[in-house]
Amino acid sequence: MSFVALGFVIFSALMHASYNFFYKRSKLKIIYLWSMFAFSIIIMTIYSFFHSNVVFVDLNIKTLFLAALAGIFFTLYQIYTGKAYAMAEGDLSVVYPLSITAPLYIPFLAYFLIGERISTTTFIGILFALLGTYLLQLNVPLSQLKFKKIDLKKQHIRYAAFAGFIYSFGAIVDKVGVGKHSFFVYTYWVVVFMFVYMSLNILKNPILRKNFFYCIINSTNMVFVGGLFLTLSFLSYRYAMQLTCVSATAGARQISSLFGVLMGIFILKEPYGSLRFFATLLVVFGVILIKIG
């Protein structure tokens, strides 16, 4: 992975952590997420208008199909992750790591589906980054660290595992979709299709349907800022994917959890114990290995 690609991945991770920071503080999370996507479409449409309407002029059937397909995978990821958290019942320390396992599947799917190969060093780096990401979410002393048994008989555990698995297919579609030079057009239509799918999901829910524009009306500034961060995150991540392999891109992006924790520490004054320090080292070491590999 080049320094340029890594730089865009790290920037994307920072933007991802930033819009998630606002997302977690919102009252109606699904509506807020939908509102951010709406504003993201507005931002990219305005940009496209001043650049020869590139999202329409350079559009082709292949890009449209891949964007629609990726949108399905990513929307399913959000739905099933949400269901898993809603039903977690104290198993959050199991649900979270399962929901972020996509970087483990991606190297194998990329090898068989698009012929992408990575080095052993890169794969080990992905493992370190994932382990560090998991440990960052735990707020316990290092001496009290315990790993819970994964019981696939529980529905929320299956939901979380499915979410992590289905996301990996979306990542492969992303890699094909960005191609050599069409990352902006492709990303625009991914956002559009995800917005459409989320709209349909909201319309099916009578409670959410009543609050369709709640966040836009009551949290306008949060929607604008979150939408801007989301746009920058989506674009920079897919530009990095255009420059390097999808396996390394997805693995290195786990550093977003580190940014999320740092925001919690410096903005929300959350504790930063020995476990989180150790986890930080694992994430950074993992990203270094991915860069070297």
From TrEMBL:
<protein>
    <recommendedName>
        <fullName>EamA domain-containing protein</fullName>
    </recommendedName>
</protein>
<dbReference type="Pfam" id="PF00892">
    <property type="entry name" value="EamA"/>
</dbReference>
<feature type="transmembrane region" description="Helical">
    <location>
        <begin position="61"/>
        <end position="80"/>
    </location>
</feature>
<feature type="transmembrane region" description="Helical">
    <location>
        <begin position="120"/>
        <end position="138"/>
    </location>
</feature>
<feature type="transmembrane region" description="Helical">
    <location>
        <begin position="6"/>
        <end position="23"/>
    </location>
</feature>
<feature type="transmembrane region" description="Helical">
    <location>
        <begin position="159"/>
        <end position="177"/>
    </location>
</feature>
<keyword id="KW-0812">Transmembrane</keyword>
<feature type="transmembrane region" description="Helical">
    <location>
        <begin position="275"/>
        <end position="292"/>
    </location>
</feature>
<feature type="transmembrane region" description="Helical">
    <location>
        <begin position="212"/>
        <end position="235"/>
    </location>
</feature>
<dbReference type="GO" id="GO:0016020">
    <property type="term" value="C:membrane"/>
</dbReference>
<feature type="transmembrane region" description="Helical">
    <location>
        <begin position="241"/>
        <end position="268"/>
    </location>
</feature>
<dbReference type="InterPro" id="IPR037185">
    <property type="entry name" value="EmrE-like"/>
</dbReference>
<dbReference type="InterPro" id="IPR000620">
    <property type="entry name" value="EamA_dom"/>
</dbReference>
<feature type="domain" description="EamA">
    <location>
        <begin position="159"/>
        <end position="290"/>
    </location>
</feature>
<keyword id="KW-1133">Transmembrane helix</keyword>
<feature type="transmembrane region" description="Helical">
    <location>
        <begin position="92"/>
        <end position="114"/>
    </location>
</feature>
<feature type="transmembrane region" description="Helical">
    <location>
        <begin position="30"/>
        <end position="49"/>
    </location>
</feature>
<feature type="domain" description="EamA">
    <location>
        <begin position="7"/>
        <end position="136"/>
    </location>
</feature>
<feature type="transmembrane region" description="Helical">
    <location>
        <begin position="183"/>
        <end position="200"/>
    </location>
</feature>
<keyword id="KW-0472">Membrane</keyword>
